[in-house]
Design brief:
five-stranded antiparallel beta sheet; 33% helix
Length: 276
């Protein structure tokens, strides 16, 4: 079925099962000329500094920066412009019949983060929901292979994963990020990238003693022997969340990975993320 025309004059097909009257018509939340042609000047909230210097953007797609004319500066990137697209997050969500978000699983090495992520991915897949896992070790095989485990590199590791997770969420996908992510400030910075409610922090609340007894990769043994420096929980701190959305894995609960995954699924259902 053909819906509205884009700002390029091309027809936009309505997602299967969605009628024109509900989707891309110019009478509703249109993806037509008006929305497509909104410039950054009209779509971003700006304030001027007290000394009359360049106006500071409150947000450029989740990042602060400065604007001069049609161009902006964000971080070290200068002379850039955010380009709008006629197909937006809400359209992709309707196509997938779900809402994009980030499930951020944090905890000590050996706490079961990756196991939970895979179980959660499986449960959501069975429900017909599109997910993708950003596993801490996996991303260090490619995107973050240039980073060490020093504090500054760990912060950059989390920043990059947060930015990628944000893109997945914007695509309408449920992104499961599974990383130790030991520092609160780094996790909070990733939360700040997303709209309120779209960052779901899941804390694997498993003690150091239990994680070290498991030691699935043999890393605790190496750290205790002094062969690994800066290992979280041994000679580098882990800062547990103060206000996470979900806490799992506490000893004595007897819950399996599938049961913990079902807890997260129930949360997503309650918050409306499993439907558009």
């Amino acid at each position: 079925m053909i819906g509205a025309k884009s700002f390029l004059g091309l027809p936009i097909a309505s997602p299967k099962g969605i009628s024109d009257s509900n989707s891309l018509s110019t009478n509703s939340r249109s993806v037509g000329v008006i929305r497509a042609c909104v410039s950054m000047e009209g779509s971003q909230s700006m304030t001027h500094s007290k000394n009359g210097s360049l106006p500071e953007l409150k947000s450029v797609n989740g990042h602060t920066g400065q604007k001069q004319g049609p161009l902006s500066t964000v971080g070290n990137s200068t002379n850039i412009k955010w380009h709008e697209c006629p197909v937006e997050k809400v359209d992709r969500q309707r196509l997938l019949d779900q809402k994009g978000c980030v499930i951020w699983v944090t905890g000590l090495s050996g706490s079961g983060k990756s196991t939970l992520a895979c179980a959660l991915n499986q449960k959501l897949f069975q429900k017909g929901k599109l997910c993708y896992i950003l596993d801490g070790d996996n991303v260090r095989h490619g995107l973050n292979r240039d980073l060490s485990f020093k504090a500054e590199d760990r912060a950059e590791n989390i920043r990059r994963v947060g930015e990628v997770a944000k893109l997945f969420a914007d695509a309408g996908i449920i992104c499961i990020a599974s990383l130790i992510s030991p520092y609160r400030r780094d996790r909070d910075a990733c939360r700040a990238l997303l709209p309120e409610g779209d960052f779901v922090e899941v804390f694997m609340n498993v003690s150091l003693e239990v994680c070290e007894a498991r030691d699935p990769k043999g890393l605790y043994k190496l750290a205790r022997a002094g062969k690994i420096k800066g290992f979280t929980g041994i000679d580098d701190p882990y800062e547990p969340p103060l206000n996470c959305e979900i806490s799992l894995g506490k000893e004595g609960t007897g819950t399996s990975p599938i049961e913990m995954a079902e807890t997260v699924v129930a949360y997503l259902e309650h918050k409306g993320y499993l439907k558009a």
